[in-house]
Known about the structure:
A: alpha/beta; Rossmann fold; 3 domains; B: Rossmann fold; 6-stranded mixed β-sheet
Amino acid sequence: MKRAQRKLKRSDNRPITLRAVAESVKLTASTVSHVLNDSPAARSVPEETKRRIFKAARELNYHPNFFARSLKVRRSYTVGIIAEEIGDAYGSLLISGIERYLRAHNFFFLTVAHRHDPKLLATYEHMLRQRGVEGFIALDTILDEEPILPSVAIAGHRRFKGVTNIVLDHRHAASVALKHLIDLGHERIAFMKGSPLSADSQDRWTAICEVAPQLGLCIRPELVVKLQGVDPTPNLGYPFAKELLARKEPFTALFAYNDISAIGSICAFQEAGLCVPRDISVVGFDDIQNAAYINPPLTTVRQPLIEMGELAARTLLDTIENRARYVPEIIIRPELVVRRSTGPVATRGVCVALPPAEADPRGTGDGATNRDLQS
Amino acid sequence: MVANKVGLTPGTVSAVLNDTPACRSVPGQTKQRILTAARELNYKPDFWARALRLRRTHTIGVIAAEIGDPYGSVIISGIERHLRQKEFSFLTTIHRHEAGLLQSQSRLLVERGVEGLITIDTSIDEPLPVPTVAIAGHRSVEGVTNISINHRAAVFSALRHLADLGHREIAFMKGPDTSSDSRDRWNSIVQVASEVGICIQPELVVDLNDPEGNAARTPEHGYPFAQELLRRNRRFTALFAYNDNSAIAAMRVFQDAGLRVPEDISVVGFDDIQPASYARPALTTVRQPLQQMGEMAARSVLERIEGDAGYVPEIAIEPQLIVRKSTAHAHAFAPGVAFIAARPHAGD
């Protein structure tokens, strides 16, 4: 029976109205409306009647007309999320936090991923606005112009009036990571700079350059590599770690751009017969879920991604509903999570990275890992 | 209003703002002017007025167990990719296996006019009022298209691989009751095992059940179950885990207990989530093409919405065994687990 009604509804294209439900249970439309909307007036309606109404609404496939209501109050209770990617650990955890907060406040969200395609990005804002979103949350996305609607950016980094930026305290991040390495005796530290496509790259690098000299650390250009591309897998860091080794400049520690590139680097080091952390300590950034489960578990700067997502959603709803005054920036202080990929610098002097050909037997068995990473 | 401001006809302005084929003849500079004016005037075509008129929202709803994990998020990424090409958008809601949430969320989504639904790792009890496609849904509900892995083929490839390597004493991790894939997978294992001459020993089977239903969700939650397996002190040379997360957990626990993977124990996972390829050793696993499954779900639901295709109850995805470094020949003289597991467990 349901099937037939659905067909009927779809073919004549007319929705089942509240009136139709009321007629079927022989009650007034206002009673039915009170019950279905659970308004205070429904309290006086007997339970049995309520059940009858719900049953009829279900059977008739009645849905209160959200659009008609939205049109009247000019509200959609929907926000738009513009993300670089949603299938990776970074974006998906942020979205998970956003979802949690929005659902608790009866908001929905539309999601778009631009995967660094500027053409898509340009159309998305328009598309989402057409669909009536009340605000935007941009994740790892460099906005081109000031958005018209209330907006919150995570890792956005261009200042626009009206956009609240949720940013990490990059100086603090660089400081805790580098202090940790210096305390372990490391002086020759290699760095991976982020790809220019990632919104955080510039800020993170600037902070490192500011903090290093304060800690008495010299950044050697020959120990700096710059990531390229936007691969969300450890492939991102793998070739650049190899490049670092190929330069044959000794180093005892690596501060990677993020966890994914740190994991790729550890693979490259291990394939070259080096032991982490005995020969090279590695520090990541983000603390994605898998950072704890790789071998060795990764020491990393934690971005509280789920909490940052929740904070972004809360800030946006506060702005939309005029509950809080606009703040241009909210600073998140990250913490260092020390696991097993960092250790004291070897006492017998700095390690010289061996080219893969001279690697120990470990290297021979790992061909497949290499292939996997490159496939 | 926008048309007035730029001194053009509403038809031209509408063509440009809606990016219709007719706007191809409009010079680029004019387009720019129109777009700028629209922005300055904060013009927003009334989506709802139109939706109300056409009874179309070009929106679908996605109901998933979780989005913050490498399983759900990659599927949703595939869904997004396909929908975007078809100029559909989607609302997402996550139930984290909370009872009751599924019902209320699907109702809310339908109220918001979604034209179809895609569910991920979600058990649906009753037919929904719009075309629905379920990924890993596993209960046949009338009107719902199930996209699921061919469990038989998946299990066969994994067990065959282990049997070929000489493994006969194989431990299993059985999925949690909350995951819709668990039962189908386990039934296939029981069936296939006898076909390839492997005897399932009850003492070598652990159930990944914990109060929160998290056992298979992160490696961390899987540790106690792998430890439990060792504590039972029964010899086994291979483990077929429920998924990659529990496989990665098991490898870690085995290694912490002084066992080598794959020399002492071979481990096979399931899913091929990203971390599988960079686990140490890299994990042999059955690949579910998650991104494509998402794209396929999106395509299938749109075809039904547009009436391009009839209802199909099931779409089976062919799995692929990815052989990496966590499996090797079973050695006749290998100590197996019993030898080492007798020692108190030293893991953290």
